[in-house]
Design a protein that fits this description.
It is a single chain. With about 80 residues, the chain is an alpha+beta fold. It has one domain (about 10-70). The protein is about 25% helix and about 30% strand. The chain contains one helix and three strands, in the order ββαβ. It has one helix at about 40-60; strands spanning about 10-20, 25-30, 65-70. The chain is globular.
Length: about 80
Amino acid sequence: MSRKKPGAKVGYMAFDVFYVDGSQTSNRRMPKDDISTIERDASIRNFFEAEDQEIENRSGRKRAAIKSIEPSRMR
């Protein structure tokens, strides 16, 4: 029998996203590899805005604009 080769582990970071209408989504995950070290905040915001746009397109319901994004606290 052959052994399975260990796969590449993808690390994630969790964020709480706050919207201008007062709503919040918690523990939204983003792959660590997608976070730019130079423009960290912009890359995180762009990732979640694109994800929200995809959700909006699928559901047909408009999402509010993102007000702020904070790292989730580990429990």
